[in-house]
């Protein structure tokens, strides 16, 4: 019976060095292999040209590299690119490249499916199959960086954890992936260019603050009225607004980093004055800005984009209270790559 080989990228650099020492080689060999695995993002042992043939065979006999494969790439009229990403066990997630004039943003997935149950989101309809491994998150970034260079002649500039899944329900792996993305031994990207988006898992927001992270935080708020929020995001019954408010205050106190609220305005749900007032009030708790996201229909009658007038009312009320708000038009709608549309139809 063949024993299952370990994914070599689950080893720390220290562990890899120890492995070589235990096998009668030099610890330094571990550094070389680590460099191939992470900064060079190589997905096979054969091409590790600065280690001997015997070493490569030995690695092959002991380990696998559980890497992703971009199965299908779709390009939108607006330049957005969506990758259907096949994992080593055949499951599929999606990631998106979003080009603007000044930046290229990668929108990456953190779970296969999602732990949460937001009624307006296509991903939520897939139950959570599993968490992504750090290497699988890292690979999505590498793939998009390569596409950015290829199609737009520039490297990736920003990363948002706004693809499939709830990043804070896969905390350790997301943090490990970000460590490697930001490390000089990985991609060396600035954490200031990374945003982790959460539906509001309060205790993990506090944990992030305690862990002294350097990236930005976005929270999918959508309503600052408990009853409404519980209705459209049922899991929030266990993550109520007072607790969220406290966690965000704690976050700001520790990190001094402004929070972005993501907010969709829907007809008959949160397009009234009471909702606007509640948001304005909530925004005063912690320094923040608001992204008003356009709704992307997901074949559900309950949710419809609010009128332009309703959005105008939000903008006016926020501006009057000195809260920065931006309207975010959707990108990549024609290829189902927009917010909330990721559900691997492929
Ligand atoms: N689970 C995390 C990461 C996903 S981010 C989070 O919720 O923040 C995806 C963003 O798109 C979230 O702000 C989500 O609320 C929003 N979204 C989901 N479905 C949408 C839809 N149909 N139209 C527009 N935005 C949507």
Automatic annotation (TrEMBL):
<feature type="active site" description="Proton acceptor">
    <location>
        <position position="94"/>
    </location>
</feature>
<feature type="binding site">
    <location>
        <position position="114"/>
    </location>
    <ligand>
        <name>[4Fe-4S] cluster</name>
    </ligand>
</feature>
<feature type="binding site">
    <location>
        <begin position="220"/>
        <end position="222"/>
    </location>
    <ligand>
        <name>S-adenosyl-L-methionine</name>
    </ligand>
</feature>
<dbReference type="InterPro" id="IPR048641">
    <property type="entry name" value="RlmN_N"/>
</dbReference>
<keyword id="KW-0479">Metal-binding</keyword>
<dbReference type="InterPro" id="IPR007197">
    <property type="entry name" value="rSAM"/>
</dbReference>
<keyword id="KW-0408">Iron</keyword>
<feature type="domain" description="Radical SAM core">
    <location>
        <begin position="100"/>
        <end position="334"/>
    </location>
</feature>
<dbReference type="InterPro" id="IPR004383">
    <property type="entry name" value="rRNA_lsu_MTrfase_RlmN/Cfr"/>
</dbReference>
<dbReference type="GO" id="GO:0008168">
    <property type="term" value="F:methyltransferase activity"/>
</dbReference>
<protein>
    <recommendedName>
        <fullName>Probable dual-specificity RNA methyltransferase RlmN</fullName>
        <ecNumber>2.1.1.192</ecNumber>
    </recommendedName>
</protein>
<keyword id="KW-0808">Transferase</keyword>
<dbReference type="InterPro" id="IPR058240">
    <property type="entry name" value="rSAM_sf"/>
</dbReference>
<dbReference type="InterPro" id="IPR027492">
    <property type="entry name" value="RNA_MTrfase_RlmN"/>
</dbReference>
<keyword id="KW-0819">tRNA processing</keyword>
<dbReference type="Pfam" id="PF21016">
    <property type="entry name" value="RlmN_N"/>
</dbReference>
<dbReference type="GO" id="GO:0032259">
    <property type="term" value="P:methylation"/>
</dbReference>
<keyword id="KW-0963">Cytoplasm</keyword>
<dbReference type="InterPro" id="IPR040072">
    <property type="entry name" value="Methyltransferase_A"/>
</dbReference>
<feature type="binding site">
    <location>
        <position position="121"/>
    </location>
    <ligand>
        <name>[4Fe-4S] cluster</name>
    </ligand>
</feature>
<keyword id="KW-0698">rRNA processing</keyword>
<keyword id="KW-0949">S-adenosyl-L-methionine</keyword>
<feature type="binding site">
    <location>
        <position position="296"/>
    </location>
    <ligand>
        <name>S-adenosyl-L-methionine</name>
    </ligand>
</feature>
<keyword id="KW-0489">Methyltransferase</keyword>
<keyword id="KW-0004">4Fe-4S</keyword>
<keyword id="KW-0411">Iron-sulfur</keyword>
<feature type="binding site">
    <location>
        <position position="197"/>
    </location>
    <ligand>
        <name>S-adenosyl-L-methionine</name>
    </ligand>
</feature>
<feature type="active site" description="S-methylcysteine intermediate">
    <location>
        <position position="339"/>
    </location>
</feature>
<dbReference type="InterPro" id="IPR013785">
    <property type="entry name" value="Aldolase_TIM"/>
</dbReference>
<comment type="similarity">
    <text>Belongs to the radical SAM superfamily. RlmN family.</text>
</comment>
<feature type="binding site">
    <location>
        <position position="118"/>
    </location>
    <ligand>
        <name>[4Fe-4S] cluster</name>
    </ligand>
</feature>
<dbReference type="Pfam" id="PF04055">
    <property type="entry name" value="Radical_SAM"/>
</dbReference>
<keyword id="KW-1015">Disulfide bond</keyword>
<feature type="binding site">
    <location>
        <begin position="165"/>
        <end position="166"/>
    </location>
    <ligand>
        <name>S-adenosyl-L-methionine</name>
    </ligand>
</feature>
<comment type="function">
    <text>Specifically methylates position 2 of adenine 2503 in 23S rRNA and position 2 of adenine 37 in tRNAs.</text>
</comment>
């Amino acid at each position: 019976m063949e024993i299952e080989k370990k994914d070599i990228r689950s080893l720390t650099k220290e562990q890899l060095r120890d492995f070589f020492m235990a096998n009668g080689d030099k610890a330094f060999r571990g550094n070389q292999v680590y460099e191939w695995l992470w900064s060079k993002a190589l997905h096979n042992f054969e091409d590790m040209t600065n280690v001997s043939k015997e070493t490569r065979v030995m690695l092959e006999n002991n380990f696998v590299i559980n890497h992703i494969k971009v199965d299908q790439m779709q390009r939108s009229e607006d330049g957005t690119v969506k990758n259907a990403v096949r994992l080593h066990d055949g499951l599929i997630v999606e990631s998106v490249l979003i080009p603007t004039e000044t930046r290229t943003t990668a929108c990456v997935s953190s779970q296969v499916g999602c732990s949460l149950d937001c009624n307006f989101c296509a991903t939520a309809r897939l139950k959570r199959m599993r968490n992504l491994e750090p290497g699988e998150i890292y690979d999505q970034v590498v793939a998009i960086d390569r596409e950015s260079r290829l199609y737009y002649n520039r490297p990736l500039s920003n990363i948002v954890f706004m693809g499939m899944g709830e990043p804070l329900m896969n905390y350790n792996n997301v943090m490990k992936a970000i460590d490697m993305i930001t490390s000089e031994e990985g991609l060396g990207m600035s954490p200031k260019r990374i945003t982790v988006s959460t539906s509001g898992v309060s205790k993990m927001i506090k944990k992030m603050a305690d862990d002294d992270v350097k990236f930005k935080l976005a929270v999918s708020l959508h309503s600052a009225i408990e009853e409404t929020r519980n209705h459209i995001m049922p899991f929030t019954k266990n993550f109520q607004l007072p607790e969220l408010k406290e966690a965000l205050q704690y976050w700001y106190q520790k990190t001094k980093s402004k929070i972005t609220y993501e907010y969709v305005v829907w007809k008959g749900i949160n397009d009234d004055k009471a909702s606007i007032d509640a948001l304005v009030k909530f925004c005063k708790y912690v320094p923040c800005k608001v992204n008003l996201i356009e709704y992307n229909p997901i074949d559900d009658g309950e949710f419809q984009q609010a009128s332009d007038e309703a959005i105008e009312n939000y903008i006016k009320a926020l501006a009057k209270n000195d809260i920065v708000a931006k309207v975010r038009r959707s990108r990549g709608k024609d290829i189902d790559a927009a917010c909330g549309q990721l559900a691997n139809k492929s």
